[in-house]
Amino acid sequence: MSKTLTVKGKVFSGNGEGAEFIKLPWVSKQIAEKLGFIPYTGTLNIKLTAQSIIIKNSLMNARAIEISPIKGFCRGRCFRACFIQDLNCAIIIPEVENYPKDVIEVAAPVNLREKFKLKDSDMVEVKIMLD
Q: What is the pTM of this model?
């Protein structure tokens, strides 16, 4: 039986590290195989609300879809998710030291900013599906 958690937050511009990660062939291949879509080469950065940070923290004990790294890279934990209008996507939580506790990155088969005309500080909601 699956459970759905909803997180909310504001869109913000990142430093491009998510895009660099998604561009790596082994990452996009694993996302396609494990999540069922070829990711757009970039992520949507969301700064979570206080309540959503608590929800994100609870994901640390949930069963995640692992993106297994090649030597020299960090692991990522992914969860199936839905974005505006039920667009299938995934949230990615890099397992890297000092990664912000109030941030998630959303990978999707399309550029979410363009598709939904999003700009920095727009409030969005992501539904996370747990198995």
A: 0.91
